[in-house]
Amino acid sequence: MNRIFTLLSLIVLLATANTSWAQANLDANTPAITAITNSMKARNSQLTGAYQSGAVGFAKDGNVAVRDASALPLKDRAAINSLVAQENQDRAALYKEIAKANNHPEWEGDIRNTFAQRFIQKAGAGWYVQDGSGNWVKK
Amino acid sequence: MKNYVSLLLFSAALSACVTINVYFPAAAAEKAADKIIDEVLQSRQANKPVPAVK
After folding, report:
1. Which residues of chain B have pLDDT under 50?
2. Which chain B residues contact residue A19 at CB under 8 A?
3. Pick from B2, B28, B41: which is nearest to A44 by CB?
4. pTM (2 decimals)?
5. Is the ipTM here above 0.85?
């Protein structure tokens, strides 16, 4: 019985001593990620007006969301929902691809949270962003 | 019997040796996010103050 205890303590010691703690790098440079980024870049000129008018804001979940479609000229209102849907589709694909490119698909949620924070941080003056409790705040 | 138990525990200990815990690299993720966001929102760059690229 004593031997088993000795063995057990040895195991605990080994397990703690030999566990490596790796802080991995993050690779965001694959053809798939570049393609999504380019698609978002191309769409951005169509969305900028909606960001500036407050019709669309940066949500706390890493998406964009229609906040007040009436802030847009009538002619642009019909298109805004599909633009926002396309943008969110690209963003979801982006977060997933970065996680996949780093062989950690489970990081998708962390990556989404990181992007959510950084997008909000980088929103232009006068744009609307969501605070922690989901309220729209003008920057 | 005792030998089998020891052997079992020992192999468990061996497998524990190669455990690698990879934490989500938060700092690297922020850097990657900033790069992509700057690129996507590029057209706005000229109009707003943006801290110099680190």
Report:
1. 43-48, 50, 54
2. 16, 19-21
3. B41
4. 0.76
5. no
